[in-house]
C-alpha cells in the first residue's frame, strides 16, 4: 500500500512551510474544592498542537481560602515526568476571597511571603513563589516554568493543590488555565501535498497514556 502511494505521487509534490508560533489558552473551568488537610488534582488535556513549548503561564480564577499559608500548588506534565511547585508559604493567615492569580517567569514580583508583614494575597501576576521549597517526590522537579520549554504541549497537565494543615478549606471557583506558546517549527504541507497525505491517514494509530498519582513533600 505504501509503495503504491509513493509511485503515484512524485517526491517533488511535497512543498513544506513552517507554521507560525502560536499562543493558545487551554482551560478547565470546573470549580476546584480544596479539602482540609488533603490534596486535590485537576487536569487539562491538550492535543493537536505542533512544535514545542517556548513560553508557559498558569492562571486560576476565584481563589478563596481561610488560611492561605496552608496552600501548596504545583504543575505536572505527566507524559514528560516533570513537575514544578510554584506556590507555598504565601499570604499568611489573612482570608482571601475571589482572587485571580497568574504565575509567570516574566512577572516582576512574588506573592507576599507569609508572616513578613507584606500583606494579604491580592489579584495580579506574580513570579513563582515556593517559599518553603516544596518538591514533588515521584517526578523530576523543575525550577521555573521555562523548564517546560522544549516539550510538547500535548498530553495531560495536572494542577495539584494541597492544604498542608488542618482546620481551613478553600476553593478555586473559576478553575484554571494554561497559556502556552509553541515554536510552530513543525512543517505543514502545501495544497499539492494533501492528496498523498490523505491516503496515508489510515496508518495513524492511537497511543494510550497512563496517569500517575503524585504527592508533595517538603
UniProtKB/TrEMBL annotation:
It holds the Pfam family PEP-CTERM. The keyword Flavoprotein does not apply. Residues 188-211 form the Ice-binding protein C-terminal domain. Residues 1-23 form the signal peptide. Keywords: Signal. NCBIfam families: PEP_CTERM, PEPxxWA-CTERM. This is Ice-binding protein C-terminal domain-containing protein. It comes from Polymorphobacter multimanifer.
Amino acid at each position: 500500500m505504501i509503495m503504491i502511494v509513493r509511485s503515484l505521487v512524485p517526491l517533488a509534490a511535497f512543498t513544506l512551510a513552517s507554521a507560525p508560533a502560536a499562543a493558545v489558552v487551554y482551560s478547565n473551568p470546573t470549580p476546584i474544592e480544596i479539602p482540609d488537610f488533603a490534596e486535590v488534582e485537576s487536569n487539562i488535556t491538550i492535543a493537536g498542537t505542533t512544535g514545542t513549548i517556548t513560553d508557559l503561564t498558569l492562571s486560576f480564577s476565584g481563589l478563596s481560602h481561610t488560611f492561605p499559608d496552608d496552600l501548596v500548588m504545583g504543575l505536572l506534565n505527566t507524559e514528560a515526568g516533570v513537575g514544578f511547585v510554584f506556590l507555598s508559604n504565601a499570604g499568611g493567615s489573612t482570608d482571601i476571597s475571589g482572587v485571580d492569580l497568574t504565575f509567570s517567569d516574566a512577572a516582576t514580583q512574588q506573592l507576599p511571603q507569609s508572616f513578613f508583614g507584606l500583606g494579604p494575597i491580592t489579584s495580579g501576576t506574580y513570579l513563582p513563589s515556593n517559599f518553603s521549597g516544596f518538591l514533588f517526590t515521584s517526578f523530576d522537579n523543575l525550577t521555573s516554568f521555562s523548564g517546560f520549554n522544549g516539550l510538547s504541549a500535548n498530553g495531560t497537565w495536572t494542577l495539584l493543590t494541597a492544604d498542608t494543615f488542618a482546620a481551613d478549606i478553600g476553593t478555586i471557583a473559576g478553575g484554571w488555565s494554561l497559556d502556552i506558546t509553541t515554536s510552530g517549527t513543525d512543517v505543514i504541507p502545501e495544497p499539492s501535498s494533501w492528496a498523498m497525505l490523505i491516503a496515508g491517514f489510515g496508518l495513524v494509530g492511537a497511543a494510550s497514556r497512563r496517569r500517575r498519582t503524585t504527592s508533595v513533600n517538603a
